[in-house]
Amino acid sequence: MADSKKPFLTKKPFLTDVKTLRARARKHLEGGAVTGTYKGNVKKTIEILQSVLATEIVCVLRYTMHAVAATGISSEGVKAEFAEHAKEEQEHMNQVAERINQLGGKPNFNPDGLLSRSASQYGEAGDLVDMIRENLIAERIAVDHYRELIRYFGNDDPGTRAMLEGILLVEEEHANDMHDLLVAHEGRPMLKS
Ligand SMILES: [Fe+2]
Ligand SMILES: [Fe+2]
Predict the structure, then answer these.
(1) What is the distance between the alpha carbons of residues 49 and 97, in angstroms, rounded to a whole number?
(2) Lowest mean pLDDT among 4-13, 29-38, 83-92, 177-186
(3) What does the alpha-carbon distance between residue 33 and residue 93 come to, in Å, rounded to a whole number?
(4) Distance, CA 135 to ligand 2 centroid (Å)?
(5) Per-residue pLDDT tens over the stretch 74-116
(6) Contact 33/73 with Cβ under 8 angstroms?
(7) Contact 92, 54 (CB under 8 A)
(8) In this structure, what are the phi and psi dihedrals at residue 76, rounded to the nearest 5 degrees?
(9) How far apart are the C-alpha atoms of 107 and 120, rounded to whole Å?
(10) Are 133 and 180 in contact (CB under 8 A)?
């Protein structure tokens, strides 16, 4: 069988030798973390991450406001949950901002146009149950958005993908926490079997 006709799967992935890796890393130092093996479109990645950053900032603001403004019977436990989520959203915000910086971009923290860059909404909400519901909606949006982005980055940018995978796990936990609170407050399961 001629080489070109061999099934693709029998080929081992190509690994660059250490000498070439070292020589390559010394060139184009201005690229920082973006080296020649980066297969993504850096400009597009930064653009996507600016929208992820806006989403996380809006989540920090919404949870912080809810943690302060929540009132009513048994609101103390819920307030604590909101405050914990606010802290975790802030960690995501920092991670994404760092990643934009690593890729050579400038993280956009400008409050102008923040909501239009964000996937999730601010969600003012009146009472405690409304707040929980708003947060659950926002978390479900974030979960969908991040799952899609993880698939989009695939092997083109494993660094960004790994970061988003870590964030996704926390967002799934957040959605689950909000769902549990809603069930506790409404006294009935929300999920249809
Ligand atoms: Fe988040
Ligand atoms: Fe979240």
Answers:
(1) 8
(2) 4-13
(3) 19
(4) 8
(5) 788 899 999 999 999 999 999 999 999 999 999 999 999 999 9
(6) no
(7) no
(8) -60, -45
(9) 18
(10) no
Spacing, Cα 132 to ligand 2 middle (Å): 12
Q: Report helix, strand or coil for 188.
A: coil
Ligand 1 mean position to 92 CA, how many Å?
Answer: 5
Per DSSP, 13 falls in state: P
Cα(186)–Cα(127) distance, rounded to whole angstroms?
13
Residue 42: its pLDDT value, please?
A: 92
Separation of CA 59 and ligand 1 centre (Å)? 7
pLDDT at position 34: 82
How does DSSP assign 157-169, residue by residue?
-HHHHHHHHHHHH
User: Could you give the CA distance from residue 71 to residue 126 in angstroms, rounded to a whole number?
Assistant: 10
Q: What percent of the chain has pLDDT over 70?
A: 89
Across the range 142-166, mean pLDDT stands at 94
The structure's pTM equals 0.83
Cβ partners under 8 Å of residue 96, min gap 6:
49, 52, 53, 56, 107, 163, 167
